[in-house]
Amino acid sequence: MKRNLINFLFPLVFLLTFSCLIYIFSDTLVHAFNPGHSVFPQDKKVDITDCQEWTQTVRDFNLKPGEEANRITVLMYHKIIDDQNIQEGHYQDGNSLQETIVLKSEFEKQMALLKKHDYVTLTAAEFNLFMDNKIDIPQNSILLTFDDGFKNNYQEAYPILKKYNFTALNFVITGNITEKDNKYDPMGQQYLSVSDMKKSCDIFDFESHTYNFHQRNEDGKAYLVTKDKEAIMKDLKISLGNISDNQPLFSYPYGEYDLETIEVIKELGIQSAFTVKYDDVRPGKDLYEIPRKTVFPNDTIVDFMDKINLK
Amino acid sequence: MIYATLVLFSLFILFQLLYIFIPLFSGKGRSEGIKLLEEKEFSILIPAFNEEKTILNCLQGIVNLGYSNYEAIFINDGSSDQTMKVLYEYLDLKPIQRTPTQIGQHEPARGFYQSANFPRVFLLDKENGGKADALNAGIAYSKKSLIITLDADSILAPDALAAMNTSFEDEKVLAAGGMIQISQGFTGSHIKPKPVFNLPGIIRYQIIQYLTDFYLHKTTQEKLKSITVIAGAFGAFRRHALLEINGYRKTVGEDLDITLRIHKLIKTKYKKHKLIFVPQALCYTECPSSYKALFSQRFRWQRGFIDCLLHFRKSYFTNLGFPVSIYLLVDSLILGTLNAYPTILIPIILLFTKNYSMALFFLSFTFLLALFRSIMALLVAGRFGHVYSRKDLLKITLFVPFEILTYRLLGLVFVTFGTILYFKDKDVWNNVDRIGTNKQSYGEGIMLNRKEVG
């Protein structure tokens, strides 16, 4: 009798104890077992400050009256994957590519088109001044942006951008930066390494896409909307510290934000923030709700021309 | 890096869970293990090298056995102290003739004697040759079909042979290990010893360790057919099995070696036969009470382990069974030696990678696991009649959490230095076998009444 009671109680207490332990440490464990969320140390800095000085250059475009732009397009990319590397896992529901993917061949065509029509990619400083109506920029100005900071941006997009002498903003989830340089794997969620960032900082302007808040809660709402102000402030501060960002720009994960989010980024001295609202950008508009146009995997070159208002 | 640690940690947890839960649900208790059966015949072999201080205690255990069908052979392995004289005087020895069975090689005998006081007790005097050599000589001169090996500093409980007798009722049992208790942990007569915990930390640590190693580990290993060692202090074998494998090999780890060779014998010839652990068969042994003696003992164990590990390198998974190979290579080698002490190494690795909360998690996890394991060891010990008083239980409760974080770390030192010493003095120690074992005199903790003898 006593023996049976112990045989029942001991495993029960054992299970309860270890369940409590695992519950207490659940956040830590989720990080450890989810390689996409391997954590870049909070206090660590990617040393690219000198290499990013170009982002603050402002060119004189020598425009004649009537040549200045009154609206421009900001394009948004996530992953650029080589056509040869496309696998079943890159598809969603059967036959269409995941929305965040653009084939390398398409990207190459799009950049070639931009070059052919003498497009100019703006620096962060030029873009901000244009938004403030402080400088004139050519009508064929464009801002290229990448979200999340995937390794394929360095592997596939970087050489093409370099070839055409273009630059781009790259919004990095800094908590996902890897200290070790892993072998490139076109499948899965592989993020930029410190070494990738150092090698591509001449073309990419690295900006914050949060440290570890590119997440949704159980109800599917973005952290930037659900978490309290202090937590958001803390997370963004860490991310800005990781990339030593002195003139920070920002893009909202999932494009979700609220008034409180905007208060936080203003307090942090962030100059402008990008959404995923599909529209052209006109100067004088709200700097914290800048629209962007997503480039989709099935966009034809005509769709693309339409996006950038090229007739 | 993190994956390697996780794999190691998972393996560690897996083995710990087996050690905790298999004994909990194993059906044995004290009363089930000892039955009044017809007495099978035993030869008890006691190799003795310079054991003048402890040999009479051992003898008391033997003459107080509640069993009659046995012979006990003390083997004086060329002692340079008074071992021979002490026995000679106490036993009133008379030379007799006995023809030895041929078994391997052993140093020549100087004489064979029978006691006039205790006709079941014999003495084999021989040239020094080490413990394995002495045991081989003992096997050669023994006459009974079941062999008990007993250390000269160990004392058999009165019903130990009856328990072994019950176990060997099963024809499939080729060898059996007894339960080794630490004699300092008992008080009162050795007919009815009472466990106590009012002892120095170094002995408390070993008591908890022995309870865990035997009641949990050996029980689990028996269930999984993977008893890797029948402790040299108290084991039982069928004599024909020992003869078939040509006796003991000269090595520091002769008990591990003979156990593994019995496993080979099972694998090749006696399929379906087994090795078992008999928790009801008790023997009391004195544990080292100084750090020097403890380190010396554990270094010796580790060197013996490494020696056997290399000696059997071609046998794993072929003529050593799968469970034994797994236990030896994974539990003993990887978790026990290569990783030295997962509980401490993993958090250190994590601290270096600055993953502090993960380190804290691993530390808490291993600490709690160790705590539950010790509780389970005490629970199972209680089922076999090893029950502490309330006052002692309180002492244990306070001691164990402290011990997990302190004494238990000694294991790291034992395996690390033991391994280093093995490779350093590889050629030296084979012949200096028993020298360096502890030769402690009995402390005040044990009060076995010598007057009861006879």
From TrEMBL, chain A:
<dbReference type="InterPro" id="IPR051398">
    <property type="entry name" value="Polysacch_Deacetylase"/>
</dbReference>
<dbReference type="InterPro" id="IPR011330">
    <property type="entry name" value="Glyco_hydro/deAcase_b/a-brl"/>
</dbReference>
<dbReference type="Pfam" id="PF01522">
    <property type="entry name" value="Polysacc_deac_1"/>
</dbReference>
<dbReference type="InterPro" id="IPR002509">
    <property type="entry name" value="NODB_dom"/>
</dbReference>
<feature type="domain" description="NodB homology">
    <location>
        <begin position="140"/>
        <end position="311"/>
    </location>
</feature>
<protein>
    <submittedName>
        <fullName>Polysaccharide deacetylase family protein</fullName>
    </submittedName>
</protein>
<keyword id="KW-0732">Signal</keyword>
